[in-house]
Amino acid sequence: MGALDGQVVVFTGAGAGIGRSVVTRYVAEGARVVAVDISDTVEDLAGELGTAVVPIVADVATWEGNLGAAQAALDRFGRIDVFVGNAGITDNAQPLEDIRGADLPAAFGELFGVNVLAPMLGVRACLESLIETRGSVILTGSFASTNAAGGGSLYTASKHAVHGLIRQLAYELAPDVRVNGVAPGVAPTRLRATASLGQVTTDSVLDGTERALPTQHIASVSAYDGVFTMLASRTESVAMTGTLVTVDSGLSIRGIAKPGGRVSRA
């Protein structure tokens, strides 16, 4: 018996990285998933995971994309128990002074459209069903949701906004729907960047990154599966709402002199 037996999940940003790994775990735990991504790589999940997954290629920064995903879950499975807003893009840590003022409105609209508006649209599209099932929402935040220097000013502001959204929705939807989040630090995945700034998809892990972490190790994308599963569970996180769970390899407690107390100075 799996931790998510019988639950139906709408999951955005499911085509690669953490999202793809968590969807695989959800299916193993008994969930059925509508997996949404702007990339058609998400369609491979049906071949890998069978009829428990319905892949949808859609732009989650649009109302139509989210409404279509929610309707697909209702048409195929008859209910929605969990919405996971995991889609996100980065600004490649570009400082504000390096962005032309004339380019800011488009960059803001693009990045906030995916990182902030999209989860709002997703929750709204699934809301009536989530209330009916007394379900839950999980949003993917970041180390940058509570700290500076986890990205550029656009990305950091957007992830701070996600943290605020988690808390506000937890208040608005209580007691019917729980709302929580996961804040990863460094994960070995490729991040889609802000096209309006001329940026391209890049690797999130640079050479030597592990030496900056207290754990001295880059965790695999599957290291986040358990936290997402716990938050989706109807038993393991029943007392949790409005919480952003930090899963950042200790990045937020990194020291100035050295990353961790027992890390060699050499």
From TrEMBL:
GO terms for molecular function: cis-2,3-dihydrobiphenyl-2,3-diol dehydrogenase activity; oxidoreductase activity, acting on NAD(P)H, oxygen as acceptor. It is an enzyme of class 1 (oxidoreductase). Belongs to the short-chain dehydrogenases/reductases (SDR) family. Keywords: Oxidoreductase. Pfam families: adh_short (PF00106). The lineage of its organism: Bacteria, Bacillati, Actinomycetota, Actinomycetes, Mycobacteriales. Its EC number is 1.3.1.56. This is Cis-2,3-dihydrobiphenyl-2,3-diol dehydrogenase.
